[in-house]
Amino acid sequence: MTEAPLPSGTTRRRVGLRLQKPWFAWGARPTVSVDGVGQPAQWGAGTWVLPDEGSVEFAVFCINRSWRFGAASVRIDAASAAGAVLEYRAGALPFGAGSLVLRSS
Residue 104: exposed, middle, or buried by beta-carbon count in 10 A (0-12, 13-18, 19+)? Predict the structure, then answer.
């Protein structure tokens, strides 16, 4: 049996995320994935909760009705997540990889 998640607000590990909307968005929406679990997101700045221990694979990609593009990922450990901000940009064209950079604040 797996452990139930803690109630909202009990985690101390958060990471900021800035999602920059590409010029060619054509209705595309960003999706954030933390250890393979996808969650819809919105363009702009936000905060994401991470597990309190261990490292996680943090990924972002864009998706519209026709295709998925701009995938980028980074592994984050507990030490680097404190006060950090991730910045995501899709590629210059609506295909290929995007970039996800971890910056300390």
Answer: exposed
The pLDDT of 95-105, averaged and rounded, is 83
Sorted by sequence, the CB contacts under 8 Å of residue 71 that are 6+ apart come out as 59, 60, 61, 97, 98
pTM for this predicted structure:
0.79
Distance CA 67, CA 39 (A): 17
Among left, alpha and beta (phi > 0; psi -120 to 50; other), residue 74 is: beta
> Measured on CA atoms in the order 90, 92, 94, 97, is the torsion positive or negative?
negative
pLDDT in tens, 17-58: 999 988 776 788 999 998 888 999 999 999 888 877 788 899
Determine the pLDDT at residue 54: 83
Strand partners, 31: 40, 61
Structure tokens at 51: 């597990």
